[in-house]
């Protein structure tokens, strides 16, 4: 990370705060009246399905929350930029899941504010984790931004911007990927808004599984439009910034990936399991457990390289104290 991307960092935190508060003002009426008349239905599921819900609530969710905390502690003293971003992503992810747990323990799942904090934590967490992946791929594998290292794509490009006055093929590729993602983002606002809530008996205890209006507005409208704006900024930086555009473009690209990925995940679960929202809840928890286990597995398998102090690396702690 160079001085230009460091200059963006303070504004990044301001943007996270502002963009997090904005939905509360935009969708406040929907927070107050999350359901339309007749949107509540009663649904019966099998005993086996009920036990799946119980297991995910009382075993799967605490398991990945505990693992997230362990990974955060493990990464706490690391100063490499990709590991710092991963740590911050896990902190926001854990914060969002803590809000989700508090909503059900303290408010019986009826607090729109804590439910929103859950979604917000996941969005910001995914963005930081996306940046960690981009930064790690760049400096540890591809070596695109490392001035003294050979780019891994050189064997494909034959000529490289590092050694000759030629266009960069990787940059051209991302100049296509970004507008492609902008186009794909428009899929989300085209989905119909249809708030619903299902009351399902879970081991003789009635529980509500809602998809209220405000969540569908946030996931299907706010998230994609914010992603589109951020992707346009990333694209503009990549096309028009004359000196070192990639570090800054990566920040805006990763910031866009979080809300876009979250919106598509929720749209898929809500649509696929519309007739039985309990399964949407189960599979969200299971995929989050798989994700957190995958993060830990990656850190463990590649710990020798990830936690190695290399003075020549831009991600070395000695050169990255400001990232902590």
Give a summary of the structure in a few sentences.
Helices cover 69% and strands 6% of the residues.
Structure description:
With 324 residues, the chain is mainly alpha-helical. It has a domain at 36-80 and 146-315. 69% of the residues lie in helices and 6% in strands. The protein is built from eleven helices and three strands; from the N terminus they run H-H-E-H-H-H-H-H-E-E-H-H-H-H. It has helices at 3-26, 28-32, 47-75, 81-107, 112-142, 154-157, 169-185, 213-240, 245-272, 277-301, 303-306, and strands at 40-43, 196-202, 205-211. The protein has a three-stranded mixed β-sheet. Strand 2 (196-202) and strand 3 form a beta hairpin. Helix 3 packs across helix 4. The longest helix has 31 residues, at 112-142. It is globular and about 70 Å long. The model is unreliable at 310-314 and 316-324 (pLDDT under 50).
Topology, element by element:
Elements: H1 3-26, H2 28-32, E1 40-43, H3 47-75, H4 81-107, H5 112-142, H6 154-157, H7 169-185, E2 196-202, E3 205-211, H8 213-240, H9 245-272, H10 277-301, H11 303-306
Parallel strand pairs: 1-2
Antiparallel strand pairs: 2-3
Helix pairs in contact: 3-4, 3-10, 4-5, 5-9, 7-8, 8-9
